[in-house]
Amino acid sequence: MATGQAEVYARSGRATLRAGQYAFASGDARLEIDWMDEPRDRFTRFVGERRNLAGEGSGTPYVSAEYGYDSAVADFDQHGSWILVNGSYAWRPSVAIDWRPYVDGYWRWSPAGLTWVSYEPWGWLPYHYGSWDWDVGFGWYWSPGATYSPAWVYWSYTPSWVGWCPIGYYGGYYGGHYGGHGGGNGDGHPGPYARSNRKGSGAERGTLSYPHLRGQVDVTRVDPRGWSYASVSRLGTRFDSRRDVLGQERVGFRAGERGIVATSPLRIDRGQGGSVTTAVQDAVRRVPRALSAGTREGRSIEDITPVLRRGGTLETSTQEALRRSFVTPGQDPGYRPLSADQIAAPRRELPAGTAAGAPSRGADRGLGSTSAPSRRRRRRAEPRSRFPAARDLARRTR
Description:
about 400 residues, alpha+beta, 2 domains, 5-stranded antiparallel beta sheet, two-stranded antiparallel sheet, 12 helices
């Protein structure tokens, strides 16, 4: 027992176990209670180390105080350094030059969409709150945020491969041009921060904005730097990141191969019977099949390859649609799990008087959206998520 106390029941009776003690039970033999000289397994030692970090107050001032526990156990100062980007502090991990976010880990099913489980010791907070961006001078860095997501990524679907890219890779690149926000990200494009009215440090200093994207792409013509891919047959299993998670250059896409890119996570119904892995793979395979069926029937969704290419000049209509697609975490009504058919659905006709290319303000909002703006007034989204933080999970396991 690391902390607190517990009642232990065995065939021979019961005993109260206090902090620092352990119990041993064997058949009908009398319960053995003794004091622990040291942790009895690696997990206990790991938990103790994390608690010591949190107890020492070793968090960072650049992350909101309400995430102090999560920041402390991540031990950001040991695994990287804090840098100043566009007037706000961001964290840069100490990693190899060819490192990318969302590679060293695997995807796990959850009702909110596929959730990234990182193998990296600091990987809880940076992959679920805030966003990763890339700078020509700094490389990859994490900007703290205050809204939860199973993973802040864009998704790409083809018949054999599923891809993902940090949402800040395009939010940071296009933010100044089409999102209307100031700053700069080191490659000639202003930065992604839309300042909130809140005062404070860390995640409260700025709110990352990003374009809500959905459309067809030529997967061989997107900017490959931020994208990672895995075979659909490996999705839902624990990845070996060196073998299972590939950059675009190792995938071998056919010239002109088409796919769908979406911001909203894919809704995966576990159904009755069968494994979770099978349910995940079946759901992912339905997305490109739905796109192919729509194309054969003369229905298609918008091509957003020029946007994902991150190069050249966009057409005026695309610029305007991109500008209007920008949203902030917690204020994006379209960010919810969608079925395969919804992700691949074609654009519907907009009502008279609605600007072409304007994103819907309903559930399908964003560049490449399909629905007409809703007239029903929506409640303003809460800035905080109902999902538990790591410290809350830890309390429940004590």
